[in-house]
Amino acid sequence: MKRIINGLLAVGCLLLAASCADYNETANFTAEPDPTATVPYSDLNPIKTYIDREKFPNMSLGVQLKVADFNKQELAHAAAITNFNNVTFGSTLMSSAIVSDNGIMNFLSMMDLLNHVQEIGGEVYGSPIVANANQAEGWIKYLTSPIEIKVDYVEGDEVDFNTMPTGSFPAEKGSASIVKYDNQNCLKINASANVRIIDGFDVDPLATYTTTFWAKADKDAEFNITFSGKAVAGESEGKWPLKAGKWTKIVVESKSAEDATEGYLRIENTRKALFYIQKVQVGYFPDNHRPQEPEEVSDTIHYALNTWCDGLMKYNEGRIKSFDLIDEAIDTKSTEVVPGIYDIKHGTDDNIFWQDILGSEEYAPSVSKVAKEAYEKYGGDPAALKFFISETGLEDQKTFESLKYWIGKWEAKGAKIDGINAKLTLTYSEDATTQADNYASITKLLDNLAATGKLVRLSNFDIKYKDAEGNAVTVEKITADQRQKLADYYGQLLKTYMTKIPNDKQAGICKSNMVDTATDPVGLWSQDAKKDWVRNATYKAFCDALSGK
């Protein structure tokens, strides 16, 4: 097991010789700094302890983890609990991770983490209740799929070779002919031939066709069959066997190929012996499904929303009190609903979005009503419940104005919307002009957010580093001087947030990565050659900024 060197995690190295099992015992959970650490920044305490609660009573630090990583109760778990006020779990607590295609909901992992968080006095910020991505798409498709109905068999075309004169018969390969056999005219198909025994009828790609014909061979034979472009496997390694000596009724059931434009049944690659065919008939069962009516789809989607929210809040038991209500609704590639305002996203023929059925203006009102009722049903404190709208790209003024417009529409219809969760894309640039623009963009966003009068949360609070030419500076190449510049910018943004957002509207910031990624130096910790976590300058910058230095 790896450890955090700079005084975060005492796994395996406490002076008291506590084991990993001891550390993860939740009954007497502690996650104190390691007193044996002697590396730089070892004198610093956990980050959240530096928040000046007199000046910033509502300031909060959050971090995002995967449910599985948290439930391991190892390094990432301890780092999160020790240094941050709350943990969020992104898509791993959204319906795509919990609901199967047939609607079975598995909340076991969520229950494990909430039970543990409750025992140690932690907090969880709720993942988006609904969104366009990371939804239980298979379940939604299953629920809104066509409804099965009763259909009757339809008699189709028929070919009676006994009514045909003797002579040659068209073959795509090899030869065939109408001959006298067993006191009747029959179709004789010679070995190695491909012959359509019936064709020229219309096909419905959704219908299931039944083709019957009678066949006889003087010696055992076998062949392949294709129905309207689709190979139909027989019982003998894909081939259709025909025993010699008597007339045998052969029944072929198949749909046509999806792109088929003509109906036919073709005998192919006849082997071992020639054989004879008499009387071919084709009929079909039409597609026994019908699309759901708009009213039925609406009922289905409302049922899905109620079922999902009920399950989520049942196992939440009021423990998660702040949620993203809906996520990334604004469609910046859409046409404008009114001048200067983007529409919200809508689904395609392949995907149904909640708002397609609930209605654009009823989207947030419908979700907040159902979610709030379920939250209170299972013991949640209504006074503590907070719903946020999370959105990306709000640095763009048109996107921000569009979100304000839709929040206004939704609130007018009764939606509970307490705050905005702005999902950031942050960069530090060594080019002075570019960096000035970067900072100006964030300060403008914070001014805009403050003016809404709503709670303001900043997520994706990870800053990537670029050189003066715009090239990314990676973990492997970043210098100590560059790391300090990056840290200073983190501190600057934290201070700007705490200055521009009123104290009673500060819902805090959320880091996406505690430790540097494989490529980007975005972490509060770096990793050394042993993959141990080592505090870096950004850790200190957070501590200084939060304490008012």
Describe the structure.
The protein is elongated, with a radius of gyration of 34 Å. By secondary structure, the chain is of the alpha/beta class. The longest helix is centred in the middle third of the chain and has 23 residues, at about 295-315. Helix 7 packs parallel to helix 9 (about 365-375). Helices cover about 30% and strands about 25% of the residues. A hairpin with a 5-residue loop joins strand 28 (about 525) and strand 29. The strands form 7 sheets. Strands 1-2-3-19-22-23-25-27 form an 8-stranded parallel beta barrel. Strands 6, 7, 8, 9, 11, 15 and 17 form a 7-stranded antiparallel sheet that branches. Strands 10, 12, 13, 14 and 16 form a 5-stranded antiparallel sheet that branches.
Task: Provide a concise account of the structure shown.
With 549 residues, the protein is an alpha/beta fold. Helix 7 (294-316) packs parallel to helix 9 (363-377) and helix 11 runs parallel beside helix 12 (480-500).
Task: Count every helix, treating DSSP H or I runs of 4 or more residues as helices.
Answer: 13
Q: How many DSSP-defined strands?
A: 29
Helix/strand-derived category reads alpha/beta
Strand order, main sheet: write it out: 1-2-3-19-22-23-25-27
Strand residue percentage: 25-35%
Distance between the termini: 35 Å
Unreliable segments (pLDDT under 50, ≥5 consecutive)?
1-28, 31-38
Mean pLDDT: 91
- Main beta-sheet annotation: 8 strands, parallel, barrel
- Rg, rounded, reads 34 Å
Shape: elongated
Helix content: 25-40%
